[in-house]
Amino acid sequence: MTALDARPDSPTALRFPQGFRWGTATAAYQIEGAAAEDGRTPSVWDTFSRTPGKVRNGDTGDIAADHYHRLDEDIALMRRLGVTDYRFSIAWPRVVPTGSGPVNSKGLDFYRRLVDGLLEAGIRPVATLYHWDLPQELETESAGSPAGGGWARRETAYRFAEYAGVMAEALGDRVATWTTLNEPWCAAFLGYGNGVHAPGRTDALASLRAAHHLNLAHGLAARVLRGALPASAEVSLTLNLHAVRALSASAEDRDAARRIDAVGNRIFLDPVFHGRLPEDLVRDTAGITDWSFVEDGDLATTSAPIDSLGINYYSPSVVAAGSSESPSPWAGAEQHVRFEPAPGPRTAMDWPVDADGLYELLVRLRDELPGVPLVVTENGAAYDDYADPSGNVKDPERVAYLHAHLAAVHRALADGADVRGYFLWSLLDNFEWAYGYSKRFGIVHVDFATQRRTLKDSARWYADVIARGGLEGLDG
Length: 476
Prior knowledge:
Elements: H1 3-6, E1 21-25, H2 28-31, H3 44-49, H4 71-81, E2 85-89, H5 92-95, H6 105-120, E3 124-130, H7 136-140, H8 155-171, E4 177-182, H9 184-190, H10 204-228, E5 234-239, E6 244-246, H11 251-274, H12 279-284, H13 298-302, E7 308-312, E8 317-321, E9 337-340, H14 356-368, E10 374-378, H15 396-414, E11 419-425, E12 444-447, E13 452-455, H16 457-468
Parallel strand pairs: 1-2, 1-11, 2-3, 3-4, 4-5, 5-7, 6-8, 7-10, 10-11
Antiparallel strand pairs: 8-9, 12-13
Helix pairs in contact: 8-10, 9-10, 10-11, 14-15
């Protein structure tokens, strides 16, 4: 069965605008490997993955998809797919091993080779400065203080801005789009709230401090980038906004949805786009903090202008009045909200498949942030796919997922959302954080024993989408 045989039915032909950016995305710790080579030092994820019981099967990113050594092969795969853009992240500890101070020239050289290779292949580089691999030394610094180290410490935001300046100087003439942070919600609340991500802390106050310092880091870095980059370069931020639905129309359930929207979405949207903290979030979290760690001038810094907003979306959340298990990532909401299973089919992550949630987010942002271009910077699904005896990887469920979500993006475009591009997550099967190598999101299958790459049916299908400029001709 070919990819075209696997495609889902579609009642209409859906073309995307001329110049729409068709991309794919990865993250450094998930694919690069070479964890101790050429001057790279440990990140919080190296430490976390070596902590017994934190990552499934004791997996680490030491080798991952070995992208560090297979750079040319992976760029050739992207060229074969026909992607116009590639979104990658830079490993901070590969470039500035201690988080601050001396720059590692060998680390910079790797990203120079990557960017030059992409440009040679006609692919537009989209760089993310932070996809969760904080240098361990910054986490360890001041770890014994009441606030602790890492993102709970204000100083980390300033070190991040310095690192942004290093990268702008090294690659500013060749990288088209610079994203400061990827999913700061996960870094703050999964890393410092319920501890399922690195650095594994369980401290509600630390998670709120981390969220603010990530916002501050974004603003500081945006200013540095703006001052160092050519006028044509774009500065961006990527958020994993939550499509939150109340279980019922009751006042209690609607208040549960409001609470999650405050600590899941507006904790970033309001400081970044409006220069303010959400008043209801401050009330909700009054039992945890008085927010005195927000200093004069911070919110003017967090709201430095950006050129686009990236949206990562996988599935919606359904909430009701109740309470969540402790420790919870939902600071200020854990005693008031419980999560309910959403209806519909589910991925291998046990996440519900519901493309309407992506449409809802895009039209919400159309209304709330007029004039801000949007990019879907991650969207995809994990399934238990495998190479069959003939070497083929058939993944019709992923094709159906992607088709539905691209149709939702098209619907949002038709309804006036200024969506400039779509980045499929992910190019390669990889190290899936706390799940290790047990979950596969790639459209390219990776045999982790041999590092052999195999295009899945979804990769061929996506190549057809790109070649046709949309879903036209791929229906039924």
